[in-house]
């Protein structure tokens, strides 16, 4: 971000002198037009419309330059206002074998030069078929983790360059048979400046996804809903037919009918929630000649066996 701001500053500093000269010469020209128009008033004693419009345009140009100058001065201030902190681990994914409770420890590090006030909240979430995460209020889902966790401390301050530790305890409810609980642990920050600074203060959030699955209730299952080529792209529709989330990755190949590899590409890792689908689109990078081809996709979703799908298509 700092580098971008510096580049912008250099660009503005080069642009401003040229604008100043242009406006200055324009203003002198308009002043001359104004004085001449005073001697050429029409019979109704009104100034010519051309001169009036020119003066109005000059005022607008000066106002715009004043706005740009103010923005130029504020950019470094806004840049310095950004305060950073980190949270680790970045996510929790654990399978529980008969344990009634489990405790995690998170490290929160303030890497800024100001103190921070941190508040912890929980939210539920879903992931749609295109991979977008949609946040929901806590306890919106039947398997929300929020009612069964205790956090200590829930709110605290961190000194500049300091580290604090947060403990989270999850207790499995005995009266429910839910295969997996999940939710998002949100760390919300608000800067506390060590001294008065005329800056815009920015609050930040860090989300940590947490998944706890119950070992004796787990079912892992998956399938291809669809596999096809259209508009020079491989389109995959993957379905999580099980009852826990899946973390999926793999590879896709394009082959000739006699099994010669034409193109091979990796499929970046993605998450699919229980009983949901995920659409994946991979562009074909090379120009295919007309003819018959095969697409073959192999996916690893954490089961003992890989999921493989194949389809023939004509270019």
UniProtKB/TrEMBL annotation:
Key words, A-Z: Membrane, Transmembrane, Transmembrane helix
Transmembrane region(s): 64-85
Name of this protein: Molecular chaperone
Organism: candidate division WOR-3 bacterium
């Amino acid at each position: 971000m700092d580098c971008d701001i510096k580049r912008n500053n250099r660009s503005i500093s080069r642009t401003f002198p040229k604008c100043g000269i242009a406006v200055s010469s324009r203003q002198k020209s308009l002043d001359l037009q104004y004085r001449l128009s005073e001697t050429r008033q029409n019979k109704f004693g009104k100034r010519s419309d051309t001169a009036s419009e020119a003066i109005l345009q000059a005022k607008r140009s000066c106002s715009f330059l004043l706005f740009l100058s103010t923005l130029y001065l504020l950019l470094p201030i806004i840049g310095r206002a950004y305060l950073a902190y980190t949270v680790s681990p970045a996510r929790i994914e654990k399978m529980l074998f008969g344990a009634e409770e489990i405790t995690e420890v998170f490290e929160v590090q303030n890497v800024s030069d100001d103190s921070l006030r941190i508040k912890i909240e929980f939210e539920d979430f879903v992931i749609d078929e295109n991979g977008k995460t949609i946040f929901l209020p806590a306890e919106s889902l039947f398997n929300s983790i929020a009612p069964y966790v205790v956090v200590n401390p829930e709110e605290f301050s961190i000194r500049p360059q300091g580290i604090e530790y947060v403990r989270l305890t999850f207790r499995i409810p005995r009266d429910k048979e839910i295969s997996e609980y999940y939710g998002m642990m949100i760390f919300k920050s608000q800067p506390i400046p060590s001294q008065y600074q005329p800056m815009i203060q920015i609050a930040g959030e860090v989300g940590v996804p947490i998944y706890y699955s119950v070992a004796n209730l787990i079912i892992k299952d998956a399938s291809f809903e669809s596999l096809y080529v259209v508009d020079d792209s491989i389109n995959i529709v993957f379905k999580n037919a099980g009852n826990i989330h899946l973390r999926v990755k793999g590879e896709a190949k394009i082959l000739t009918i006699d099994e010669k590899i034409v193109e091979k590409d990796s499929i970046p890792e993605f998450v699919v929630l229980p009983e949901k689908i995920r659409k994946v689109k991979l562009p074909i990078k090379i120009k295919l000649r007309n003819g018959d081809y095969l697409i073959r996709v192999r996916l690893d979703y954490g089961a003992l066996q890989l999921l493989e799908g194949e389809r023939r298509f004509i270019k």
